[in-house]
Design brief:
Length: 440
């Protein structure tokens, strides 16, 4: 066995990741910046619609504390950071662009570049400027054009500093949660509306892809796609399998298949969108968990209870099943489907006490490694999230951070899992010691 000293301080790595692999974390503007008072979420919060009537308020004050936060990223030995640009800051009023907000994001990017941290920039992460939502949000087709005008403005202003763009975060999860489940603004409860929004977002992505490449041909453009494993409650029941497959089709396939084939083939809408075809330079995947679907789930859904996990499975504070093998299944499946390099744009766990996060991290990374060994081209892993933040409709109680945040003092504190992640990134892999310590 090679000793620590003999390898120049690098612990012996059992699961080595490819050279140049991106190790990073991810955040989203509204969840961390603070004072995003000009978007639909702020309105939703101030109407008392978030759990315990919480508001995002100052959030993590990342807007003013980003240097301090980038120091932490450096200490994690990370070489990548994913964050989003807040449309409602760039275009507070329709057609009026705020150059000072663009300058601010420029400063952030320059700071990342100085530190050799590759930025992954998301252009839309759930929030919309108020003027957009007041004009009908993503059900109004004009929103596609407004979005494209905003994209053109941002990308031409920042093109020299950004290679990796994410046009839209989780169009599927956004449409699902905002227009079918009614849990996010504008609280729609209609399958038809949900399908319409997925359709519009596929069009928006297709056009944005071209705009971004016209501005800078070297750009790498993708979406961040939320994939949930959807298994039937009872694998022997034909009805359960059919229901699982139906939901899987809309949630996990519809949007992405449009980008592969140029054809949108959903319930209610079938149409060719030729310009959306082949518009992924890489695929961003957000993976968290598995859900079970079947006849029983449909009844639960009517009572707004979504998941029906079997007894005994390990869960997060959010009650989501911890299912590392699912990560392997997801990347294998999407690799076969898309045949484009994959970057994990989110993966993480709500775990306030940090008793499960290190194990979650290591077990998921080992599954990722397994897929890489089998030939899947995975280029990076961005953990959700750098620090505790405003977890949308659930407010501040769900804690996804590698760093704990005290929201009174804004102090950031290392969790044990942050130290583990730092060690993994530094070694570009997982040592046998780590595996033994957390997985046996
Ligand atoms: C990601 O969404 C988001 O990109 C990120 O902003 C968020 O903080 C992170 O995950 C952690 O949640 O189906 O009943 O659970 C993941 C997909 C979609 C899962 C909305 C939670 C809420 C309704 N999310 N969903 S439910």
């Amino acid at each position: 066995m090679i000793k620590w000293e003999e390898k120049g301080g690098i612990a012996m790595v059992k699961y080595a990741f490819p050279e140049g692999f991106f190790w990073g974390t991810a955040t989203a503007s509204h969840q961390v910046e603070g004072d995003n008072n000009n978007n639909d979420w702020w309105e939703f919060e101030t109407q008392g619609r978030v759990k315990d009537k919480q508001i995002s308020g100052k959030a993590c004050e990342h807007w003013n504390r980003y240097e301090e936060d980038f120091d932490l990223i450096e200490k994690l030995h990370n070489n990548a950071y994913r964050f989003s640009i807040e449309w409602s800051r760039i275009e507070r009023e329709k057609g009026k662009f705020d150059e000072s907000a663009i300058e601010h994001y420029r400063d952030m990017l320059l700071s990342l570049r100085r530190r050799n941290i590759e930025p992954f920039v998301t252009l839309h992460h759930f929030t919309n400027p108020l003027w957009i939502s007041r004009e009908g949000g993503w059900l109004n087709e004009d929103t596609i054009l407004y979005y494209l005008r905003y994209v053109e403005k941002v990308v031409s202003s920042l093109k020299d500093l950004v290679t990796y763009w994410t046009t839209i975060n989780e169009p599927n999860a956004y449409a699902f949660t905002s227009y079918l489940l009614g849990m996010f603004p504008p609280q729609g409860k209609s399958l038809k509306k949900m399908v319409k929004v997925i359709n519009s977002m596929a069009k928006a992505h297709g056009k944005a892809y071209k705009i971004i490449h016209d501005i800078n041909p070297n750009s790498q453009v993708s979406i961040a796609y939320n994939v949930m494993i959807m298994d039937p409650v009872n694998p022997n029941s034909v009805i359960d399998r059919k229901i699982a497959n139906f939901v899987d089709g809309i949630y996990n396939r519809l949007f992405i298949e449009t980008l592969i084939t140029g054809r949108f083939s959903g319930p209610f809408i079938k149409e060719d969108i030729p310009y959306a075809k082949d518009t992924l330079d890489y695929l961003g995947i957000n993976y968290y968990t598995r859900i079970y679907l079947g006849l029983k789930t449909l009844f639960l859904a009517l009572q707004n209870k979504l998941y029906d996990y079997p007894e005994g499975v390990e869960r997060s504070d959010f009650n989501w099943e911890i299912y590392p093998e699912g990560f392997y299944r997801v990347v294998k499946r999407f690799w076969e489907m898309v045949k484009k390099p994959i970057i994990i744009t989110e993966n993480g766990i709500s775990d306030a006490k940090d008793t499960k996060r290190s194990k979650y991290l290591i077990s998921h990374l080992i599954q990722l490694h397994r897929a890489i060994e089998e030939g899947v081209d995975i280029r990076g892993y961005l953990h959700w999230s750098l620090m505790d933040n405003f977890e949308w409709a659930d407010g501040f109680q769900q804690k996804f951070g590698l760093f704990e945040v005290n929201f009174q003092t804004q102090e950031r504190k290392w969790r044990e899992s942050a130290r583990i992640y730092s060690e993994i990134a530094k070694n570009n892999g997982i040592s046998e010691e780590l595996e033994k310590k957390y997985l046996s």
